[in-house]
Design a protein that fits this description.
The protein has helices at residues 2-30, 66-78, 90-93, 97-100, 118-128, 143-149, 153-156, 158-171, 201-220, 228-231, 252-271; strands spanning 84-88, 108-112, 136-140, 177-181, 223-225. It is α/β, with parallel strands linked by helices and 273 residues long. A 5-stranded parallel sheet has the order 2-1-3-4-5, sandwiched between helices. Strand 4 (177-181), helix 9 and strand 5 form a beta-alpha-beta unit. Helix 5 (118-128) runs parallel beside helix 8. It is globular and about 55 Å long.
């Protein structure tokens, strides 16, 4: 009886050890590996990570999800016809495209990475958008850049616009139609401007970024979607409290409105042709 008990304990211990090595060993390996998807892509610019990430880290993690590499490889191999690729940060990542666009036959691919900035999106633009060759792609970027700029925000906010311009330029002439989304307002105090009453430099910068993004869209023939105007409250600069869970990220009401605005913008664009 004792021998059988020991054997069972040994099996459990071995199984636990194997799982521990497989799981945590993978975390260590994935931090420096490269994806192999397409010979045409430059993966040296792209950082990958394992399954464990700290979403609360002070410095937003600047990496892609490994599962995107796996899915990209599958889509390229299948030569999948993709209607939209959504490139963005946590706002995009949390947008459940399959659920919110269930009434449409569009094939949509979500490539949102929480904490991502426009610089990181440039680094992964080729492998997460270009090689998938969607009919259209939705660029939604900016808020994390503005958070990181802090006291330099008045000088550096044009970087967001320039980086969007660079990404759109890559795809010009190849049949992929760009959609440029406005940066959303926020409804919370940011530590660096905690002592500012009323509009902070961040609140003032967001409309400036959006105005310039709208100009970029007009210059390159892209569709500009103004989410900001529909989601700002009576103050004229804060995110509506009924649309957010924490003053930055959207709740289900926010994503429903977001989806409606997206669909209406496409209808309007189609009717103008």
């Amino acid at each position: 009886m004792r021998q059988k008990f020991r054997q069972n304990c040994s099996k459990i211990l071995l199984a636990f050890t194997a799982c521990f090595i497989l799981f945590f060993g993978d975390v260590g390996c994935n931090s420096h590996k490269k994806a192999v998807i397409s010979d045409k892509c430059n993966y040296d610019k792209v950082l990958l990570h394992g399954p464990l990430v700290n979403l609360e880290a002070k410095d937003w993690f600047l990496v892609r999800y490994d599962e995107y590499d796996i899915d990209n490889k599958r889509l390229v191999k299948e030569k999948a016809e993709i209607d939209f690729v959504f490139l963005g940060d946590s706002l995009t990542y949390r947008w459940n495209l399959d659920s919110h666009f269930a009434d449409h036959s569009w094939r949509m691919v979500n490539r949102g990475v929480p904490g991502d900035t426009s610089w990181n999106m440039i680094s992964r633009f080729e492998i997460d958008v270009v090689q998938l060759h969607p009919k259209s792609y939705h660029l939604w970027v900016g808020i994390n850049d503005l958070f990181k700029f802090e006291e330099d925000i008045d000088r550096r906010w044009p970087e967001v616009v320039e980086n969007v311009r660079k990404m759109v330029h890559v795809c010009q002439g190849n049949g992929m139609k760009p959609i440029i989304a406005s940066v959303l307002p926020i409804n919370k105090k940011v530590k660096v401007w905690d002592n500012v009453s009323g509009r902070s430099p961040l609140d003032n910068a967001i409309p400036k970024v959006n105005e310039e993004l709208k100009k970029v869209a007009a210059q390159v023939g892209a569709l500009y979607i103004d989410y900001y105007s529909a989601m700002v409250d009576e103050s004229g600069y804060k995110l509506r409290s009924d649309l957010t869970k924490d003053g930055v990220h959207l709740n289900e009401n926010g994503y429903r409105l977001l989806t409606d605005i997206f669909c209406e913008a496409l209808k309007l664009k189609k009717s103008e042709r």
